[in-house]
Amino acid sequence: MRKATAIAYWLIPARPVRELFSEIIRILAEELNAPRFEPHLTLLAAPGGDQSARKLLRRIKAQRIHLAVRDVAFSAKFSKTLFVRFESSDAFTELRNELRHGAKSRAEPLPDPHVSLIYKKLAPRAQSELASAIKFPFPGVVFDCIKAIRCSVPARTRADVESWKVIARKSLHQ
What we know:
5 helices, alpha+beta, single chain, Cyclic Phosphodiesterase, Chain: A, 174 residues
């Protein structure tokens, strides 16, 4: 049975934080035999086609988004095994609403802005140890790009993560 697909709209962290997140993801993936992926914060996942996603990104007028880091957390959910949690902001909410409106989506906004660091089932103790070991030397992150990704929903396996395909991107300006 084929899984449902959707277009996910991601915020991508700016350098040098993007490189730091990428390196953490790489190390965790190698050490724990997990998939590698681009660091991202999912704004929205909605039904749609590649062409409509490209058109939507062309219409977006948003500027770079700055979000304050809350903490590193974990959950039993595959897509939130270990993640960096952020405070929302007015600019973030505005962008998410603009995407929802443009995608004609009735999907509820994701309540917890975060960047995942690994996708893999782990024991709660291992998750807790990893979460407490990761500290960041910065209070916030700038996101300077939006990408539209064709993906299986929901992501529950390594194969799902490895099948993600970028179909459009847009740089956000200062």
